[in-house]
Amino acid sequence: MALNQSFGTPIRLSATFTSSGTYTPPAGTTAVFVSIHGAGGGGGAGSTDSNGRYGSGNIGGTGGVGAIAGTWVQVTPGTGCSVSIGAGGGNQAAGGTTNFDNAFSVTGGNAGGNSPGGPSNSFPGSAGNSGSGSSSSSLTALPPSASALPRASSTILVANSGGQPGGNGGPGVNTAAPTSVGGTGASGIVYIYS
After folding, report:
1. What single-letter DSSP state applies at residue 63?
2. Which of 22, 58, 133, 138 shows the shortest CA–CA distance to 88?
3. 151 to 34, 127, 191, 193: CA distances (angstroms)
4. According to a count of CB atoms within 10 Å of the terminal CB, is the N or C end of the chain lower?
5. Residue 184: which of 14, 32, 45 has the closest Cα?
């Protein structure tokens, strides 16, 4: 679906959200371009091996980079649009979902893998795989008619490139403790152009 919107001047960045809030379209604005940088995933845990041996190479995987995605969304001038910012994933957890007014959302990056562990100075556990991000549009019809045009146009997705970074993997455990904690990914960001 295509949204037709005429602008008297080139579109410009009109709002940036790094925490949840409300965007109110100014007078005359009936469509905005929303760009979401999805939250990063949390890092995986470092570890020892099953025999309690440890080495600096037993690091966890880096968390997945959040995807970048954008779309045109129809809005009503003067009517607030909710913005929900997804938190970065913590230790071994995926990043949260970032959402613009229930019309457009981007899921966070996946958590990095945990190190399987390995003997000290021998076969250290490999770093886990980095996660990935994805996005989707929720095509909600505008009121008052359910047959009205969908609110959001087709999603432009740039997965795993330039989005919010994931957390670092936990370091190799340098004591006999079983695991170390992976780092936290960065929270999502919403950019609105009008």
Report:
1. P
2. 133
3. 12, 42, 18, 16
4. N
5. 45
Report in angstroms the alpha-carbon separations of 62 from 44, 89, 128, 165. Answer: 6, 11, 7, 9
Rounded to whole angstroms, the Cα distance separating 108 from 187 reads: 9
Give the Cα separation of 13 and 192 in Å (integer). 6
**1-23 per-position pLDDT tens digit:** 344 444 456 788 999 999 999 99
Q: How far is CA 26 from the centre of its chain?
A: 27
What pTM value is reported for the model?
0.81
Beta strands 98-100; 81-84: pairing state: antiparallel
Strand order in the sheet with 134-137: 21-23, 81-84, 98-100, 104-107, 134-137
Name the residue ranges covered by the structural domains of the chain: 14-194
**E runs forming strands in 62-183:** 68-74, 81-84, 98-100, 104-107, 134-137, 156-158
Cα angle, residue 148 at apex, residues 143 and 149 outer, rounded to 5°: 115
Instruction: Give the pLDDT confidence of 103-155 residue by residue, as tens digits.
Output: 888 888 888 888 776 665 544 455 555 666 666 665 555 555 555 556 777 77
CB neighbours of 4 closer than 8 A, spacing ≥ 6? none
